[in-house]
């Protein structure tokens, strides 16, 4: 029988990461913010096979530039699993489609204009190359890999997201540094909470076994307890 704890932890992490992947809507808006008009970005500095990054408030979105103002990128999306209508699927992914896609663990590697891909954000080009010295594939190879993967695919915020897609295409290894960093942060928080709880339990045990602790030590025991409860 599989241990349910790792599965539950994985599910919790995915739900937390979902919250930071939702595109925020402006106050009072009843729908999606329209992307900039064509020509907003200068694509003359992009080359086929380039890895494009769009930093957002809490995460980074990634894509592979294919040339001619086209970017291949992975987006969670429920539509590919319920319809084959390419015209509907090709429309800009709304938050509702994105959330349902994450829940259903379905996505598509789609080709959009630079404007639709960036959605008003600034673009970094090949910024990750510094992390993959001597592992950068040829630009044409990266673009071809991206083109071969266009279409519906399985999705996971932790194990198969847009960063896994682009690192596979450009470096030959599907990895996600922002996912790893997020998981390490959650682990650190859990370890800190456990250490506080452990110190509280040890303090309480010493009171029970040795009698009431001196008044000077009581704050040391109960302040971490209240902090743990508040967290």
From TrEMBL:
Catalytic site positions: 162 (acyl-thioester intermediate)
Reaction catalysed by this enzyme: 1,2-diheptanoyl-sn-glycero-3-phosphocholine + all-trans-retinol--[retinol-binding protein] = all-trans-retinyl heptanoate + 2-heptanoyl-sn-glycero-3-phosphocholine + apo--[retinol-binding protein]; 1,2-dioctanoyl-sn-glycero-3-phosphocholine + all-trans-retinol--[retinol-binding protein] = 2-octanoyl-sn-glycero-3-phosphocholine + all-trans-retinyl octanoate + apo--[retinol-binding protein]; all-trans-retinol--[retinol-binding protein] + 1,2-dihexadecanoyl-sn-glycero-3-phosphocholine = apo--[retinol-binding protein] + all-trans-retinyl hexadecanoate + 2-hexadecanoyl-sn-glycero-3-phosphocholine; all-trans-retinol--[retinol-binding protein] + a 1,2-diacyl-sn-glycero-3-phosphocholine = apo--[retinol-binding protein] + an all-trans-retinyl ester + a 2-acyl-sn-glycero-3-phosphocholine
Physiological role: Transfers the acyl group from the sn-1 position of phosphatidylcholine to all-trans retinol, producing all-trans retinyl esters. Retinyl esters are storage forms of vitamin A. LRAT plays a critical role in vision. It provides the all-trans retinyl ester substrates for the isomerohydrolase which processes the esters into 11-cis-retinol in the retinal pigment epithelium; due to a membrane-associated alcohol dehydrogenase, 11 cis-retinol is oxidized and converted into 11-cis-retinaldehyde which is the chromophore for rhodopsin and the cone photopigments.
GO annotation, cellular component aspect: endoplasmic reticulum membrane; late endosome; perinuclear region of cytoplasm; rough endoplasmic reticulum
Gene3D superfamilies per the UniProt record, alphabetical: endopeptidase domain like (from Nostoc punctiforme)
Keywords: Acyltransferase, Cytoplasm, Endoplasmic reticulum, Endosome, Lipid metabolism, Membrane, Sensory transduction, Signal, Transferase, Transmembrane, Transmembrane helix, Vision
A Pfam family hit: LRAT
Lineage, broadest ranks: Eukaryota, Metazoa, Chordata, Craniata, Vertebrata
Molecular function terms from GO: phosphatidylcholine-retinol O-acyltransferase activity
Membrane topology (UniProt): Single-pass membrane protein
Any one GO biological process: visual perception
InterPro entries (UniProt xref): LRAT, LRAT_dom
Involved pathway(s): Cofactor metabolism; retinol metabolism
Domain LRAT: residue ranges: 51-178
Protein name as annotated: Lecithin retinol acyltransferase
Coiled coil: none
Top-level taxon of origin: Eukaryota
Primary enzyme class: transferase
PROSITE patterns reported for this sequence: LRAT (PS51934)
Membrane-crossing residue ranges in chain numbering: 196-229
EC number: 2.3.1.135
Compartmental location: Cytoplasm, Perinuclear region; Endoplasmic reticulum membrane; Late endosome; Rough endoplasmic reticulum
Signal peptide positions on this chain: 1-27
Family, similarity comment: Belongs to the H-rev107 family.
